[in-house]
Design a protein that fits this description.
alpha+beta, 2 domains, three-stranded mixed sheet, 3 helices
Length: about 90
């Protein structure tokens, strides 16, 4: 992964974008030595969004199941909840 400051000249910024877009390179932007942002290929963003959506589905399904169990007066252990979440992934 490449690192650059947050204050590149316009030409340098265009080059960083090109490297991410065509070369599939990730570039970390720093300010005062701290990592603050990144220029990444769109395929990375899409992959992250897909992972987020999957996690949301698993979370929602687990919540619905837990609420239904609670409404019926049934409970399951924390270990069982964790096992079911792992299986759903």
């Amino acid at each position: 992964m490449t690192e650059s400051t947050t204050a590149p000249a316009p030409r340098e910024l265009a080059e960083l974008i090109d490297r991410a877009a065509s070369g599939k390179e990730r570039v970390i932007l720093t300010r005062d030595g701290a990592e603050v942002a990144a220029v990444v290929p769109m395929e990375d963003i899409r992959a992250l969004e897909e992972l987020d959506a999957r996690e949301d589905e698993v979370d929602q399904s687990a919540f619905i199941e837990a609420r239904e169990l609670l409404e019926r007066g049934e409970t399951i252990s924390h270990a069982e909840v964790k096992r079911r979440i792992r299986e759903a992934q």
